[in-house]
């Protein structure tokens, strides 16, 4: 009898153990059922482009989680550790909210590209075409064409894919001494070529050049880089910009002239917003911003045909303004002593200044901010000491890397569709082209 009871007890114990084991057995962990907090923590270590274009398409749950705009906004704010956009309370951002997903991806792509420039870019130096300082460069047609002009009074049209095909590399830099441009005009002007502009950047058919010889010339890209019109300015043209069918030139004589190919070689109107030479022009939303040696900013309204604002003081101190960049997030002005001045792009009120290049204490010298390029998410500055800074477009601008050119002085910078080109005082052009752009 005791043996029978013992046998039954053992069987009951085995059943209880089996039930207990099955009750508390955990399922194998998987990404699909993972808590959102853990999933997002994993995502924070992954590439943003991969999150948007691959992981979000795995299932509806991932798609719903990664479609949250507030999530991407949170990631942007964590990345920059500052104020973004750099100017608050912008009407544009209230009417047309930012795409935080695209902003974050753009930030990550730029950082990954320029922090690993030797792996991602072909760096090429083109020499022995211009024989004086290259003061003007322009990229058009998605970065496939480049136009250059300089103090040798010449202009050249370059096919970027032809330059990229060269492969004599030394320490990551390809030095090209026998590369010929697609077209070359040794006698493009009778004076220094100071600035360039295109009719439509990504589908350019005409390019305009401003020169010290008192003219602005129009060049046809479709007919072998031929000059199709010479606009008479009566004074050295220091800057040029295009808006629609209009071409505006800033002169050494304080005036700004507007030309139209359909109206001949004379200006269609003239306005005088400054008391000194007009050093730079930029266009945004049918408005023309100009900076002058008199240390002021002015804005012309094309639709109203009048000066909208003028005598806006630029707090440069003893420096003078050199370049400007006007976009939906900010209006930046770089000066001759390394400072970057931020203005509200809508009200044009001064916001603050930051020192992009501190004073060189041993020599007591300054760096000049020679060019500025901005997108909604990123900012690129170059100096006359050969440095190119890459920053997030926030307040204060947050630098994530610096690229050093082979030259002692950068004169101009253009960035389009991943292609970067600079003009130099060493009579050369330098290109950075994505390695996967022209295989």
TrEMBL record:
It comes from the Eukaryota. The keyword Repeat applies. WD repeats lie at residues 271-310. SMART domains: WD40. InterPro entries: F-box-like_dom_sf, F-box_dom, WD40/YVTN_repeat-like_dom_sf, WD40_PAC1, WD40_repeat_CS, WD40_repeat_dom_sf, WD40_rpt. Keywords: Repeat, WD repeat. Residues 28-75 form the F-box domain. PROSITE patterns: FBOX, WD_REPEATS_1, WD_REPEATS_2. This is F-box domain-containing protein.
